[in-house]
Amino acid sequence: MEMTALGPFTQRLAGKLSGGMKQKLGLACTLVSAPDLLLLDEPTVGVDPLSRRELWEIMLQLVTTQGLTVVLSTSYLDEAERCGQVVVMHHGQVLAQGPPGNVSRLAADRAFLVDPPANQKAREFQARLLDRPDVIDAVPVGGQVRLILAASERPGAEGRLLVDKGDDILAGATVTAVEPRFEDGFMMLLHRTSTLRESIHGLTLAPSPTPEHDGAVVQVRDLVRQFNNFTAVDHINFDVQRGEIYGLLGPNGAGKTTTFRMLCGLLPASSGTLRVAGMDLRRARASARQRIGYVAQKYSLYSQLSVAENLEFFASAYNLRGVNKRARIDWALRQFDLSEFAELTSGGLPGGFKQRLAMAAALLHEPELLFLDEPTSGADPLARREFWRRITALVAGGVTVVVTTHFMEEAEYCDRVAIMDAGRVLAQGTPAELRRRAWSEQGQGATMEDAFIAVVHLAREHEAAQHAAPRGAA
Fold this sequence. Notes:
About 35% of the residues lie in helices and about 20% in strands. It is of the alpha/beta class. It has three domains: about 5-75, no CATH class; about 110-180, Alpha-Beta Plaits, CATH 3.30.70; about 215-460, 3-Layer(aba) Sandwich (Rossmann fold), CATH 3.40.50.300. Helix 2 (about 50-65) links the parallel strand 1 (about 35-40) and strand 2 (about 70-75). The relative contact order is 0.11.
């Protein structure tokens, strides 16, 4: 209890613990018998960055002080880099095993950072790069795009890659060589298997909603939600502009999902003003829901129904009928590559395909606003690339997206983000603005994870200092 810092919560029901605390409790239960071998199956899925660091500190302490052997599976590839040995598997086969550095070196002389053109967002530039046959991987990082090339390229002076002037995408861009990381080598391994899904490349996905109003699509003013004596959301304020990706970040239990449920009209607010798609949700929840798509944290699918039956149900729930209903279901099956699974029950689908089906169901009625609650939790890097490629295409077509995520690198896809904790908004702005807040502590190379942890730590230290101050103190 001391090691996991759960001592103050011994009387709380396990079901009422936050996600990170549940994981720590599960770890504590396995350690009661003092085992020699600890098996952990994706222990940090759905866990916020702060709790993830705490779990790793516990595991490393057990390994170094007690000689415990730990075998774990993970979809966070930065965690794989901390391991002594790794085994990379795909489709039931071992692609590589050994020290993590062996996998990283597969991307030697292929890893580069590229500055997007001045008039282009990093996610849009990434989408163009992914369409190139000579690109293995591209992902936004710190306002730039990390690029992995199919062929090794020796950089020139100052580590810069010389680009052909006839290159219509990279011409004029600053392309700087960087040290390969484990994820770069991992993507190289997947590419060698020739099983990369083609749907990542050349994707066109864009329902074209016709908005009936201008200005902010979401307006939140002084929003409060209470459950008996507990305040889950505490007087928060933010706006989301049309065609924007807006991220809600925060530790487990910060109030993000409760906020989402109020924004979707699934949960009434205790007080405050909440306007979505031009409508006051406190007066017209049913009408507003027709303009909203929602992908829940846990897949909101009927596991005993087939893929086609799920789509039929959701199409009817969104009041689609006749020819239009059939056309939208056909569009969903085709666009999300679900046709061959149409007769399978959704409960038997792999996680990545469940995610596709949940997205397809949420988009059947061509909403102008899409809410995504931790949509990539537990997904592998390839599935996350595919997911964000689709979101980028949707936003380019006019859809507005509000998303929560525990992958801080995914915040780089957002135009703006808000960091929440204990039901309050602690900070909001562009990813670049929030990273700059962490520069004083972490240096100019501060990541979104550094910024997130710095903002939350500062708020908690301030809260603790206020509680510790004597009554009447300024």
